[in-house]
């Protein structure tokens, strides 16, 4: 009875967030998310309520299916996804033309109303597509429903659900392989951020996680080619998993290292080949470069340096700071990977989580869904930092209370302040252990 009531409460809160309130209703959205995360943290993390495999999977599926016909509320990225899919279906390279240019490429008798609707709601029509080719295949799948937005969305959502199922399967296999509690699966499956950002907002970091889990699972099984496929698929989807390259190379030795390296190079090259068609790489690189040097959102170290710099020299160093921090990120990851020991499943998994943490703390843009791959890996090694961050990062949606977007630096300070506390609390406990109250 208790489980049924909890499920009903979760479904009701999700329905309100996705069918009733807009993202401008931040107070309501934050309140409902806090309720969901508090419930999740208490029941799944603290109480570790016993949930059977079948009933847990059924509940996780039902929670996601309630969002199946929902138009994403918290993010408008899906307009670009659908638009790119329509481009490909009409034989237009999304890397070669700006969205504002492509209407001229359609047949004069084509009905432009649907495309105009997508274009008018898109958040970056003046940029070439920055989504890698594997992404574009999924976008093309959405176009199979024709020019019907709801059905385009449903097809994207079904693809995400299929990969969520694969992630559940891989998590279950790893849990059984390592003798872990089934609760580790529920920590991922019932996390509110995972549900909202993947099924709800149609982001594809869940597919990246599937690839990373595949890689780590087959690393443990010592299957080089399958592990290389997993990491290559994740990298082909988002490019970000390339940051794990130094760690992966350190995790193999001898002939296995060469097999992994060559297989990964071949697969990643194949996944990225469409970029060179019609000089598409030029548009892709231009948008990627501008993204690194122009966009700012929910950053930590970046904002701190920016404010100090601006206070000293009197201007925003945005155009220099983003690329500079990218170099710092690369060097930091190389140093970390060099010194990090990789001899067990927990070490390679924890190493990947730490690398993601380094990367995200130094980025100028940290959207909530960026956390999901690291969080999904982190549940396998009892990582608290990303668990807590999935609860805090929703504060970044306060930026959408108004138009134009305006971030609340008080809330950003609160988000990262609490996160840093959880990050350093184990160190504090080591340096200042609790004293016995009766100790004189």
UniProtKB/TrEMBL annotation:
<feature type="transmembrane region" description="Helical">
    <location>
        <begin position="149"/>
        <end position="172"/>
    </location>
</feature>
<feature type="transmembrane region" description="Helical">
    <location>
        <begin position="257"/>
        <end position="277"/>
    </location>
</feature>
<dbReference type="Pfam" id="PF26314">
    <property type="entry name" value="MptA_B_family"/>
</dbReference>
<feature type="transmembrane region" description="Helical">
    <location>
        <begin position="409"/>
        <end position="428"/>
    </location>
</feature>
<keyword id="KW-0328">Glycosyltransferase</keyword>
<dbReference type="GO" id="GO:0016020">
    <property type="term" value="C:membrane"/>
</dbReference>
<protein>
    <recommendedName>
        <fullName>Mannosyltransferase</fullName>
    </recommendedName>
</protein>
<keyword id="KW-0812">Transmembrane</keyword>
<dbReference type="GO" id="GO:0016757">
    <property type="term" value="F:glycosyltransferase activity"/>
</dbReference>
<keyword id="KW-0472">Membrane</keyword>
<keyword id="KW-1133">Transmembrane helix</keyword>
<dbReference type="InterPro" id="IPR049829">
    <property type="entry name" value="MptA/B-like"/>
</dbReference>
<feature type="transmembrane region" description="Helical">
    <location>
        <begin position="27"/>
        <end position="45"/>
    </location>
</feature>
<feature type="transmembrane region" description="Helical">
    <location>
        <begin position="352"/>
        <end position="372"/>
    </location>
</feature>
<feature type="transmembrane region" description="Helical">
    <location>
        <begin position="384"/>
        <end position="400"/>
    </location>
</feature>
<feature type="transmembrane region" description="Helical">
    <location>
        <begin position="57"/>
        <end position="75"/>
    </location>
</feature>
<feature type="transmembrane region" description="Helical">
    <location>
        <begin position="224"/>
        <end position="245"/>
    </location>
</feature>
<keyword id="KW-0808">Transferase</keyword>
<feature type="transmembrane region" description="Helical">
    <location>
        <begin position="184"/>
        <end position="204"/>
    </location>
</feature>
<comment type="similarity">
    <text>Belongs to the MptA/B family.</text>
</comment>
<feature type="transmembrane region" description="Helical">
    <location>
        <begin position="319"/>
        <end position="340"/>
    </location>
</feature>
């Amino acid at each position: 009875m208790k489980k049924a009531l909890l499920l009903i409460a979760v479904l009701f809160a999700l329905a309100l967030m996705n069918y009733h309130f807009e993202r401008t209703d931040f107070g309501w959205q934050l309140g409902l998310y806090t309720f969901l995360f508090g419930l999740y943290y208490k029941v799944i993390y603290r109480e570790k309520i016993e949930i059977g495999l079948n009933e847990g999977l059924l509940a996780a599926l039902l929670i996601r299916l309630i969002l199946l016909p929902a138009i994403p509320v918290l993010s408008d990225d899906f307009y670009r996804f659908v638009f790119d899919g329509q481009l490909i279906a009409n034989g237009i390279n999304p890397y070669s033309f700006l969205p504002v240019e492509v209407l001229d490429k359609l047949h004069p008798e084509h009905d432009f109303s649907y495309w105009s609707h997508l274009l008018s709601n898109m958040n970056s029509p003046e940029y070439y597509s920055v989504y890698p080719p594997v992404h574009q295949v999924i976008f093309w799948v959405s176009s199979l429903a024709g020019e019907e937005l709801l059905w385009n969305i449903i097809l994207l959502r079904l693809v995400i659900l299929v990969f969520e199922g694969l992630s559940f399967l891989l998590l279950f296999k790893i849990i059984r392989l390592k003798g872990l509690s089934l609760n580790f699966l529920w920590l991922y499956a019932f996390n509110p951020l995972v549900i909202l950002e993947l099924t709800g907002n149609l982001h594809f970091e869940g597919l990246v996680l599937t690839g990373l889990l595949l890689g780590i699972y087959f690393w443990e099984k010592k299957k080089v080619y399958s592990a290389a496929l997993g990491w290559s698929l994740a990298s082909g989807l988002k490019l970000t998993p390339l940051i794990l390259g130094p760690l992966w190379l350190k995790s193999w030795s001898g002939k296995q290292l060469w097999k992994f390296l060559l297989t990964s190079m071949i697969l990643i090259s194949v996944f990225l080949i469409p970029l060179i068609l019609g000089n598409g790489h030029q548009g892709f690189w231009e948008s990627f470069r501008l993204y690194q040097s122009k966009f700012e959102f929910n950053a930590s170290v970046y904002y701190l340096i920016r404010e100090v710099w601006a206070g000293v020299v009197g201007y925003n160093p945005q155009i220099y700071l983003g690329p500079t921090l990218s170099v710092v990120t690369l060097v930091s990851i190389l140093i970390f990977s060099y010194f990090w020991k990789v001899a067990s499943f927990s070490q390679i998994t924890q190493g990947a989580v730490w690398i993601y943490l380094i990367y995200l703390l130094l980025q100028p843009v940290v959207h909530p869904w960026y956390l999901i791959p690291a969080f999904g890996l982190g549940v396998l090694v009892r990582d608290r930092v990303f668990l807590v961050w999935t609860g805090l990062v929703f504060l970044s949606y306060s930026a959408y209370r108004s138009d134009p977007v305006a971030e609340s630096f008080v809330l950003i300070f609160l988000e990262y302040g609490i996160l840093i506390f959880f990050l350093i609390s184990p160190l504090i406990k080591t340096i200042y252990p609790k004293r016995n109250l009766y100790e004189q």
